[in-house]
Q: What sequence folds into this?
């Protein structure tokens, strides 16, 4: 079974703090993704990576950065958290570099981040 | 512009009744189509997907979906709903071959009444 794990299920941070959300997949997948999920908006892609040290902006990258130093790990970084970044964050991975949309994305359980 | 719409925010059905969840997209060519389910406290799980070929696709948990090009729709169906089907359902659409971006609908929350 593919397993995508996220470091925290719930996280509470203060405005201005630097926040790290970690995602690990155990299936040697090439591609990894970060989404945020908000009521009434569905899922929106923040960043994705198709290789170690490679990253691509998604639809809403502002206020976020990412890091992929190892193939199995993809980190989302909020340099200075703001209240409008309170959301559910979902990590996903898929197998084939260049496999594109035909590849199934496997999702982690999500991290619910609250910024006070 | 490309878009995906799930017109129903919340649907309530009785256990054993049939279910249809709607998904419409706006795009000139045939997109890549997916349905995902999110149970409470869980990540998303793929139910089924359509890229080409037979327009009726079977998925896991007894779900099926039908692609109708003329209506730009990809509706999800199940003939008899179980209480464990209560969850949020997301339609997702990919518009460009080779791209990684999926566009998700806003979701439909399903409540199942005993």
A:
């Amino acid at each position: 079974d593919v397993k995508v794990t996220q470091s925290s299920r719930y996280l509470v941070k203060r405005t201005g703090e630097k926040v790290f959300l970690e995602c690990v997949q155990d299936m040697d997948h090439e591609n990894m993704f970060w989404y945020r999920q908000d009521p009434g908006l569905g899922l929106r892609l923040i960043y994705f990576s198709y290789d170690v040290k490679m990253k691509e902006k998604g639809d809403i990258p502002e206020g976020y950065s990412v890091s992929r130093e190892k193939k199995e790990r993809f980190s989302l970084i909020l340099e200075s958290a703001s209240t409008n970044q309170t959301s559910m964050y979902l990590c996903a991975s898929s197998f084939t570099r260049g496999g594109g949309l035909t590849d199934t994305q496997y999702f982690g359980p999500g991290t619910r981040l609250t910024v006070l | 512009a490309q878009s995906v719409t799930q017109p129903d925010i919340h649907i309530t059905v009785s256990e054993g009744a049939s279910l249809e969840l709607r998904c419409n997209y706006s795009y000139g060519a045939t997109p890549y189509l997916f349905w995902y389910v999110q149970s409470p406290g869980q990540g998303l799980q793929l139910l089924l997907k359509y890229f080409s070929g037979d327009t009726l696709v079977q998925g896991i948990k007894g779900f099926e979906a039908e692609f109708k090009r003329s209506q730009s729709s990809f509706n999800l169906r199940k003939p008899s709903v179980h209480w464990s089907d209560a969850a949020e359902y997301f339609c997702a659409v990919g518009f460009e071959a080779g791209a990684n971006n999926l566009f998700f609908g806003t979701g439909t929350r399903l409540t199942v009444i005993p």
The interface with chain A takes residues 9, 32, 36, 41-46, 49, 51, 90, 92, 94, 96-102, 104-107 of chain B (CB under 8 Å). Chain B has a mean pLDDT of 91. The first strand of chain B starts at residue 3 and ends at 5.
